């Protein structure tokens, strides 16, 4: 395969990843208008948001196993087709139930696409240095997608209806299908053995139950939720049986022996831990920009750009920095820098300013960009025939990390917000006026601002804003400390002398 064709293939794979990352964040912008038109119940709205990640998490490992045997290019093309058709169905979506169904199909298509973009990069780029650069580009695009989504979503909503947030996927996927047919070679594992269907079902049940259980804990901001514990129990049993089966079969669905590679395991810890740390903090910062700083959705997207710009620059610079110093030192240092950035917002006091937030975002972006090295550790720490397994492991780390971060650090933020608001004089006054309004105000910052506007309580708006800033800072400090711990663990875990190709040179 010529050099020009290799890099053109990378552009196609990265562009399809960009569409998926955008799709995750565009919905956040489109949701208010969609909710106003379709009038979903609170439970339906939750499912519209959550079902995509549930389906995606459940199918990453099974689809990677199918792709290894059936063909990664075929699986990618099928994923593109399902994603395009599901997006097109939004033209007929006149109820919340249909939108939920569309999100299910998007999750099915997304799970076919995401791990195969990684495994095909692993197969196409045989030169170690080229592969490191290709993975850096992939990581840069992944970081860029999260920031571009709100910008594109905001622009689409200003010009069209919420349907456009889905329909934009259709032409992009059609172009991707044509490019993949022309550019990419087929890739499959010659001696993969028969697909282990019981293991695939156990993996799917276990991952869906795990993600749903964690989300449920986060929604209630409490560990005293019986249905969440039941889901975690189902996940433990299913994934425990899945693990045992994979360890005892000649051709396992997921080769857990890959975790014997310390660089690969360190890469997974870096991906999981950093996503846990960053996800809730970035979500809260986006809310702060719109609800406290007064930014429109497009302005909020622009103000979040420092994290994407620095992530992109760091991703592209990471392989060269790793060659000059060492991969483990660059990755660990960047993660700790991101931790410092997250903790930095605590220095702003109750009057948080955007310049401080922008500095924090830039430092966080520096850390997330270095996850290109974590990707290299994961993908290069596995043989080519296990590229699908490695891709599924990495994507699962990001999915579970994002859910765990929003649930855990989101709960920390909720507790800080509630405690701070309840201690204010305005909240005590509101309780004496309207107990139900007070109950709503302490549940979320958005509800508190609605109550303050409706009842004309400027002091409540001020106190709620201060409580929200305190919650953001609490989540930032907790996430920053976790990031520092992850950076330290990664540095100690990766053997001295480890290069980007996963080899150890003494």
List the main descriptive attributes of the protein structure presented here.
506 residues, mainly alpha
Structural features, described:
The structure is a single chain. The chain is mainly α. The protein is 81% helix and 0% strand. It contains 20 helices and no strands. α13 packs antiparallel against α14. The longest helix has 36 residues.
Offer a quick outline of the entry.
With 506 residues, this protein is mostly helical. The protein is built from 20 helices and no strands.
Number of strands: 0
Give me the strand/helix succession: HHHHHHHHHHHHHHHHHHHH
Distance between the termini: 34 Å
Shape: globular
Instruction: Give Rg in angstroms.
Output: 23 Å
Helical coverage, percent range: over 70%
What percent strand? under 5%
Summarize the helices and strands and which ones pair or pack.
Elements (H helix, E strand, L loop, with lengths): L2 H36 L3 H29 L1 H17 L7 H29 L3 H32 L4 H4 L1 H15 L13 H24 L5 H23 L13 H30 L5 H7 L1 H20 L2 H18 L9 H16 L1 H10 L6 H36 L2 H9 L1 H9 L1 H11 L2 H36 L13
Helix pairs in contact: 1-4, 1-5, 1-7, 2-3, 2-4, 2-8, 2-16, 3-4, 3-7, 4-5, 4-16, 5-11, 5-12, 5-15, 8-9, 8-16, 10-13, 10-14, 10-15, 10-16, 10-20, 12-13, 12-14, 13-14, 13-20, 16-20, 17-18, 18-19, 19-20
């Amino acid at each position: 395969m010529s050099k020009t064709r290799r890099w053109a293939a990378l552009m196609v794979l990265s562009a399809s990843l960009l569409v998926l990352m955008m799709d995750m964040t565009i919905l956040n912008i489109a949701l208010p208008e969609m909710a106003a038109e379709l009038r979903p119940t609170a439970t339906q709205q939750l499912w519209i948001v959550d079902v995509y990640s549930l389906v995606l998490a459940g199918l990453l490992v099974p689809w990677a196993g199918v792709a290894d045997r059936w063909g990664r290019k075929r699986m990618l093309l099928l994923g593109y087709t399902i994603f395009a058709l599901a997006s097109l169905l939004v033209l007929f979506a006149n109820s919340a139930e249909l939108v939920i169904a569309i999100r299910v199909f998007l999750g099915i298509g997304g799970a076919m696409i995401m791990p195969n973009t990684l495994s095909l990069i692993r197969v196409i780029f045989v030169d170690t240095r080229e592969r490191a650069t290709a993975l850096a580009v992939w990581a840069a695009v992944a970081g860029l997608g999260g920031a571009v989504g709100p910008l594109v979503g905001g622009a689409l909503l200003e010009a069209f209806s919420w349907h456009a947030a889905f329909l934009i996927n259709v032409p992009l996927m059609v172009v991707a299908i044509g490019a993949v047919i022309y550019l990419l070679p087929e890739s499959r594992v010659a001696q993969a053995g028969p697909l282990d269907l019981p293991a695939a079902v156990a993996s799917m049940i276990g991952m869906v139950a795990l993600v749903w259980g964690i989300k449920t804990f986060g929604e209630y901001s409490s560990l005293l939720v019986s249905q969440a514990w039941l889901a975690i129990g189902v996940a433990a049993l299913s994934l425990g049986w899945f693990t045992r089966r994979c360890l005892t079969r000649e051709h396992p669905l997921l080769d857990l022996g890959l975790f014997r590679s310390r660089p690969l395991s360190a890469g997974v810890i870096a991906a999981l831990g950093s996503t846990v740390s960053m996800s809730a903090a970035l979500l809260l910062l986006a809310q702060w920009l719109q609800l406290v700083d007064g930014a429109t959705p497009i302005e909020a997207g622009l103000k979040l750009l420092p994290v994407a710009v620095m992530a992109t620059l760091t991703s592209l610079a990471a392989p060269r920095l790793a060659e000059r110093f060492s991969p483990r030192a660059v990755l660990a240092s960047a993660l700790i820098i991101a931790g410092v950035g997250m903790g930095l917002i605590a220095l702003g006091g109750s009057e948080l300013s955007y310049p401080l937030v922008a500095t924090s975002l830039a430092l966080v972006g520096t850390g997330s960009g270095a996850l290109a090295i974590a990707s290299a550790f994961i993908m290069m720490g596995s043989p080519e025939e296990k590229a699908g397994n490695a891709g599924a492991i990495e994507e699962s780390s990001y999915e579970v990390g994002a859910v765990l971060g929003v649930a855990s650090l989101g709960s920390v933020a909720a507790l800080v917000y509630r405690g701070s608001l309840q201690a204010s004089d305005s909240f005590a006054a509101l309780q004496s006026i309207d107990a139900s309004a007070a109950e709503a105000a302490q549940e979320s910052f958005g509800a508190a601002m609605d109550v303050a506007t409706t009842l004309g309580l400027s002091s409540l708006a001020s106190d709620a804003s201060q409580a929200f800033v305190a919650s953001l800072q609490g989540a930032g400090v907790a996430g920053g400390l976790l990031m520092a711990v992850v950076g330290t663990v990664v540095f100690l875990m990766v053997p001295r002398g480890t290069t980007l190709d996963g080899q150890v040179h003494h």
